[in-house]
Amino acid sequence: MYWRRMTPWDTGVTPPELRAVIEGAEALPPGRALDIGCGTGTNALYLAQRGWEVFGVDFAGPAIARAKARLDKARREAAQRQSPEPRARFSRGDATRLREAGAKGPYTLMYDIGCLHGIPREARPLYANEIAALAAPGALYLLYAFDPADTGPIGMRESEARDLFGRDFTLVKREQGGDRGGRASAWMWFRRAG
Fold first, then answer.
1. Residue 9 included in any domain
2. Are residues 59 and 109 in the same domain?
3. Looking at residue 8, what is its pLDDT?
4. 120: closest CA among 152, 98, 92, 90?
5. In a domain? residue 18
6. Cβ neighbours around 173 below 10 Å, total
């Protein structure tokens, strides 16, 4: 899809739910973040330009190439302004093998905006194990997923997310979402035991 430039999910806009975590009333202090399914790097660069150290992983080579090009441009612009360089790295890899892709925890913030819900159900426990292994005590994991009632094999119900992450994380917040196509979705905030 990236080769054909048919990527309606790649809006170039950081969602308000993630922005609230970074800039809202209860904003997290800058730390280390993991962007799972980072695409072309929109959200990773948003965080990096606000003092976060971000590692982004995606399986799509063209997306990672664009993310790296955007990072290079952001670094050149920072040098021209004589401001700190954004600290981000991008790697092509499998979300069920994040450490093999170069992710090195611990991370205080991890987020997935539309990756996990597309992973085959039998591989999702591998993903959950990676998230648990990379999370710092008290880490926040933000998940956005379609409702499978609207999307068939792609999607994740809240009950499935609780089952996947419940051993290591507590669901602290959930909001109903939606995409431009009108499909039902949800945002889920999980907190790692501290």
1. no
2. no
3. 53
4. 152
5. no
6. 12
79 and 150 in a single domain? The answer is no
Question: Are 126 and 89 in a shared domain?
Answer: no
- Into how many domains does the chain fold? 2
Can you give the length of the chain in residues? Answer: 194
CA proximity to 139, closest of 93, 170, 173, 104:
170
**pLDDT for residue 147 is more than 90:** no
Beta carbons of 134 and 106 less than 8 angstroms apart: yes
Q: Structure tokens of 35?
A: 């962007």
> How far is 54 from 139, CA to CA, in rounded Å?
14
Question: Using an 8 Å Cβ cutoff, are 95 and 37 in contact?
Answer: yes
Q: Report the C-alpha gap between 88 and 167 in whole angstroms.
A: 30
pLDDT digits (tens, 9 = 90+) for 37-90: 999 999 999 999 999 999 999 999 999 999 999 999 999 999 999 999 999 999
Kindly report the CA angle at 132 between 52 and 114, in degrees rounded to 5?
Answer: 65
Other CB atoms within 10 A of residue 63 CB: 22
Q: Print the domain residue range for 171.
A: 100-194
For 153, phi then psi, to 5°, come to: -70, -20
Pairing mode, strands 184-192 and 135-146: antiparallel
Peptide bond into 148 cis (omega under 30): no
Whether residues 111 and 191 fall in one domain: yes
Percent of the chain with pLDDT over 70: 89
